[in-house]
Amino acid sequence: MESIKENLSKVRSSIDEACSKAGRDSSEVTLLAVTKTVDIDAVNEALENGVSDVGENKPQELMRKYEQIGDKLNWHLIGSLQTNKVKYIIDKVSMIHSLDRESLCEEIQKQAEKIGRIIPCLVQVNISREESKHGLYMEEVLDFVRKVSIKYKNITISGLMTMAPNTEDEDEIRATFRGLKELSNEIDAQNIPNVNMDELSMGMSHDYKIAIEEGSTMVRVGTSIFGARNYNK
Description:
Layout (H helix, E strand, L loop, with lengths): L3 H18 L8 E5 L5 H9 L4 E4 L2 H11 L4 E4 L8 H4 L3 E7 L2 H14 L3 E7 L12 H14 L3 E8 L7 H19 L6 E7 L6 H6 L4 E4 L1 H4 L7
Parallel strand pairs: 1-2, 1-8, 2-3, 3-4, 4-5, 5-6, 6-7
């Protein structure tokens, strides 16, 4: 079995290749090591090998790992976030990738105000309109972004996030990522206060190279770094 160090080296080479193919600089892409079900030793090994940003799906896992590792890493909450869990992570996260409803905005605003923080968030978009996925439909995003800009001063919208459809069809995957990039450009052109489209969080272990070619600035990679995992834990 290859080590985390070797896996990271391969992933970074692939990111460099994809950037080169797209005429981009690899410094434009942040590698988010997804640490879902990964133990502390493996997270620390990734940290020792240059990982600076990690993505956690569950708030309780983020809290548990943060207690042991602290702010040596930038912690991103990438999974669906229940409003009753916001208070536990608000002082720990660098970014929330799954902003998708106003009730969540209200709770983030309330908790962020208490600690005097402005929280960078990405709006989650369900481009493929799959029932199994969270997120706003494309046509809902602009109005939602405008509302957040006006009503929630402790939230900064820093971009968009999506997941590709569950398919082997590369053209369909590419079309999804391209659609998010186009939506990002459309929102950016509106010059909405407190909103920037600096980040596009798209691409996972099986499709991050396509995502980079289509403009991703953050790729969420778990299996290709840490190996296959038991998600029933």
